Every structure is written in C-alpha cells, then in structure tokens.
Amino acid sequence: MRATITNMTIVSGSQQYNFSSSIPLGESVSISIEAQNLGIPTAMGIGWTVSKPGGNVIQQYQVPMTDFMIRTNGKHYLSGPLLVLDKEGQWNIQITLYAGDKNNPVVADSYMGPLGSVVTAPSQVRPAMPKPVGIPHPEEPMYTSLTLTNIDVNAIITKWLTDWEVPVQYWDFWKTATDMQVYEIYPPSLLAMGLKQDTPAGTWESGGKRHLAIKPQWLNPGVIAHEQAHNSYALLTPAQKAAFSTIHATLKNTDSTIRLLYSKNPYGLTNDVEGHAEVYRYIGQWMPAQLTIFYPRLF
Ligand SMILES: [Zn+2]
Q1: In angstroms, what is the span from residue 202 Cα to ligand 1's centroid?
Q2: pLDDT tens digits, one per residue of 167-185
C-alpha cells in the first residue's frame, strides 16, 4: 500500500492555518487532512491524537476505514470535530494514515510534531500612540539614495510592522506573506508580463501568493502596508467583503480623516479593494474602530 498525507491544515471559520502557525488563544478549530493514494485502489482511514502544552491528550479521533475504494492517485479528505485551543503554548499532534484491506489495514504514513503555537490574542485594538493630525501615515518621498546594494528589505518591513503597530504574533506571517523582489532594472520576464521599465512597482498573484517587483527608491513602509492590506482582504469571506463595502461607503462621506485622504488622493475610490488598502496604508491603526475587524492579522 502506498498512500501519503499531502496536506494538513487547521480551519477556524473562514481562516486556515498551516501546522506550526501562531493561532490566537480561544479559537475553535478543526483539523483537516488530505491524503493521496499512490498505489492500487484501496480503502483508507486515519487517526490522530492532539495533546495540549504540558502533554495532556485532549482529542483522540479515529476516522474508520472507508467502505469504498480510493482510486490510484485519488485524494481523500478527512476533517475532525471542533477543538478549542484554550491553553497557551505549543500543541502537538500525532497522525496515522491507514490503507489497505478494510479489516486488516496497515500504516501507510504518519506525522508527529507541532500542531500550532497558541498565543494570547490582543486584548484591545486601540492604538498605543495618539493619532497624529492630518493623514497619520503620509506619503513617503522617493528615496533617491536607495540602491540594490544598500537597501535593507527586512528593515523596511520591520518599520512597517512597528509604525503600524501590527501585533507581534503575526510578524512571522507578514514577513513572508508577500514575495518582494527589488530590481534596478526589471528583467525581460517581468517586461513580458506587461510591466513597464519606468514604473515604480508591479504586483501580481501566482501560486496563491502576492508578488511585488519594485525599484529600490520606491520601497517604503507605506507601499508594504498597501500590499499587505490586500493580503489581509483576501482572508475575508464574501459576506465580510460586502459588509466592508457598506461601511466604507458611509465612512468615506462621514469620517473626517477618510474624507481628507480621498480629497488629497482619490485612488481608494477606484474600488473597494483599493479603498480597503488605502485606508490602511494612510490611516493604519487610527482608522475608525468599526473597520478594524475587516483587517485580519493586522489588528
Ligand atoms: Zn492596490
């Protein structure tokens, strides 16, 4: 029997976490496993044991062997009951995948290791710093002295995380959420995608990830804030996106800072996605409190 575990995720409402991620304390999650049959058609089953920090077993789950055959290369999806992550620290899991005869299965694959790291959620979303007058995070100038050799991309990302007061438990996530590629001269592969040599930056999505190609003079915390807001928006459900649209449509007429922003720079009026990114990029942690729920992992 040849069968293998091909994907392991933790599902919490509309959010999905990879194993070993940071997950806020108190989340109700379910574990979801994808397995693939690489051999002759076979029945499959799975079992897992979850233990809390300190070692107490909290969930023992057994999915019986299927009474049908999974075809060669066919995938089988298994999802467990709800589990409340009620203790901080590292949770572990031991998974066993079975294949073969229904009455005499053999172990085909297994995993033993971290499920996730449970961390305290922020107790409040109120910013620590007082709100500056005008546009809180104004447009940065073009940094003409920055070149490929002296730019420090990690330092610029950290400046965004700090200045926008992004909760520390999400920093690892954000440091890899966008693939940033800095170029003095864009290579032919990017020009072939339609990027012009004289434009400051270009973005695209592939393989489920956002990519940013940019000239060093233009990479600043504000540009990163805008791009990461798009990543955060992608985590919203269709219903949450619709709710954001409704509230944003009202606030752009009633909130004095958003009105000021759009009077100086109307780009956020292009559509809801750009409005969502521009509100975060220029107003950040001082945006109206009712909007913060539409920025997962940024508050
Ligand atoms: Zn954008």
Answers
A1: 10
A2: 998 999 999 888 999 999 9
